[in-house]
Amino acid sequence: MRAHPAGPRHGDGTQLAGSRQRPENTQEGLNLDPAIWPQTAQRAPDSGAIVLGGCDVRDLVTEYGSPLFAMDEHDVRTRMSGYREAFNDPSTHAHVYYAAKAFLSTTFARWVMQEGLRIDVCSGGELACALRAGIPGDRILMHGNNKSEAELTAAIDAGVGYVVLDSYEEIARLAFLAERANVRPKVLVRVTLGVEAHTHEFIATAHEDQKFGFSLATGSAAEAVRRVMALPERLELVGLHSHIGSQIFVSSGFEVAASRIIALLAGIRDEYGLELPLLNLGGGLGIKYVESDEPPDVAQMAEVLREIVARQCSSFGLDVPDLAFEPGRAIVGPSTITVYTVGTVKPIRLDGGGVRTYVSVDGGMSDNIRTALYDAEYTVTLASRTSEAPLVLCRIVGKHCESGDIVVNDCWLPSDVTAGDLLAVAATGAYNRSMASNYNLVPRPPVVAVRDGQSDVLIRRETFDDMFATDVG
Ligand SMILES: *Cc1c(COP(=O)(O)O)cnc(C)c1O
């Protein structure tokens, strides 16, 4: 894809902003689009500073330092209950599993439970966090393409509801561990369907060139089912699982996926006389990061998915199975903003003419790797005040020793942006803190939940001592 060792953005300095359209004026540039920003985000009438959950971001920075993640508890809880209601329609029996990898802390896991969701984990650490929060084992589903013996044992000990099988080795491994523990875990077989969906497009091929699951096309999914069925004393096959991608805006990929996986359900019925009671369609629903993103309405998407499944099942003469969905990003992503402090401002004259202003903040790729990793786009705004100054083209960069350390590639900020200003980046709840690193030995920022003028720390700021706790030298 990209080869430059200095990072993905190195060398494209002559290109001016492509995708980020210039707002009409400064006023519009400072506007908080409610489809992008958390539900309670607004600007204080006097100062123009952003207030989230009744807390002024300037006060949050005074109390907890900078940078920080501020999570709108009302926003995230509303989305949790909204997903539960949208998918658990009376006509179908469905469960929503929050995909823990998007973001997890003990308190957050309790919210998941309080709002009536279950949880999907894909490592021993995520499982430990869910258990620590008091989530009963039977509300937990465990994924992963290479779960260790220790992780599978922990899952058995916790009595997790479902283990999603991902390889032949794992079938044997889990059966062995189940025998040793004298239990019979419920399992799903993860099927790769040759469908990969992102935003508006999906690719449907016969084969799937990736590490997850069992391929439908090559017959390894059918073989996995055969091997599980051959161990009836040890493993209870209850269903199939598929996950077709992330940041998906349209249902067409799900439609192809559902028709393929339901055909497999029918094949299993024909071969074994067994109608598997559960179909897990994974996660992947998209959110709005920038103006041009058009995510679907959740209730509508749920409706469409139910309809697709009902139609495909009836065409094979199958009863509609229980359904499961695993949204991660769509639940936590929009709830959170990252607040940074500006440290330096450098206007750089570009070869092709024009100026790009590099605004350096006190975090970067250690708290948001998605821009460097996926070319992800984000919306950023001046958070500690408003301005009347004209807009200038900016690039928000971090403090790391890496020229690919970019938080927001193209954006328009008031030209008077200066050291000490606070910036807020929207929709950083998913895959930001959970993917954070200690690159350059930078301690990871805290996650602070805000609600009704109150703030509570979910994860405190990391200290040097935390980092050195594992350094035995
Ligand atoms: C990542 C993942 C999810 C969640 O994806 P989102 O895009 O955050 O909704 C759900 N299921 C599986 C198996 C995943 O790997």
Key traits:
binds pyridoxal-5'-phosphate; 24 strands; 25% strand; globular; disordered N terminus
Q: In terms of topology, how is this protein built?
A:
Elements: H1 26-30, E1 42-43, E2 50-52, E3 55-56, H2 57-64, E4 68-72, H3 73-87, E5 94-99, H4 106-114, E6 118-121, H5 124-132, E7 140-142, H6 149-158, E8 162-165, H7 168-181, E9 186-192, E10 195-199, E11 201-204, E12 214-215, H8 220-229, E13 236-241, E14 245-248, H9 252-272, E15 278-280, H10 298-315, E16 322-325, H11 329-332, E17 336-349, E18 355-361, H12 370-374, E19 380-382, E20 391-397, E21 406-414, E22 422-425, E23 447-451, E24 454-459, H13 464-468
Q: Compute the gyration radius: what is it? A: 24 Å
Main sheet attributes: strand count, strand direction, barrel closure: 9 strands, mixed
How widely separated are the two ends? 39 Å
| Overall pLDDT | 93
Question: Could you estimate the helical fraction of the residues in percent?
Answer: 25-40%
Coarse shape: globular
Q: Runs with pLDDT <50, length 5+?
A: 1-17
Name the hetero compounds present.
Answer: pyridoxal-5'-phosphate
- Number of continuous helical runs: 13
How many strand units? 24
Which strand-content bin applies to the residues? 25-35%
Secondary structural class: alpha/beta
